[in-house]
Amino acid sequence: MSTSRKAPVIVVTGTPGTGKTTHAELLAQESPIPLKHINVGDLVKEKNLYEEYDEEWQSYTVDEDKLLDELEPLASEGGIILDWHTCDIFPERWADLVVVLRCNHTMLWDRLEKRGYPLKKIQENNEAEIMDVVIEEARSSYAPEIVVELQSEGTEDLESNVSRIVQWIEAWRKDRGLSDS
Question: Origin, by domain of life (predicted)?
Fold first, then answer.
């Protein structure tokens, strides 16, 4: 972790449908310091950071080396929110906070159905949520004190989660002697 960064790198992760993008967008708006929201899935498409498109799963096979090369300068600078369904690809030194969003699996199923996901993809993601796949991935990839698990089942959760992360940002800056000027 770089001590020279003026702003943190926050990873917002979770099974598809848990509210990562909504959380990241609101956090970028409410943060006491400028944070750039990077939807990693969109970045992969925009910058062609993939090997192929998988028709059956309706998703891209990411070229991890290209993706990490693209993100490295942004991560060393800090001040970003990385929003993606997986987190263990990001080097440990990048992350100052890893937020894992969780959602009741029946609610998750409905959200993914509304997105028009194929049944196989809904089942796989639902199973991943039930089996704690993302939280286990986060816990095995980063120091336990930077991994936070938050429920994401409605507007109240969203607002309370974003407010908690804003407080964390303020504490992170204070710990480093950075003022809000």
Answer: Eukaryota
pLDDT of residue 56: 83
The verdict on whether residue 86 carries a ligand-binding annotation is: no
**The residue to which tokens 């639902």 are assigned:** 126
**What is the enclosing helix (H) or strand (E) of 9?**
strand 9-14
Residue range 114-172, pLDDT digits in tens: 999 999 999 999 999 999 999 999 999 999 999 999 999 999 999 999 999 999 999 99
Which one, of 9, 118, 110, 5, lies nearest residue 58 by Cα? Answer: 118
Domain ranges of the chain: 9-173
Q: Is position 19 annotated in a ligand binding site?
A: yes
Instruction: Please tell me the CATH code under which domain 9-173 is placed.
Output: 3.40.50.300
**Binding site annotation covers 66?**
no
Q: Does the annotation place 21 within a ligand binding site?
A: yes
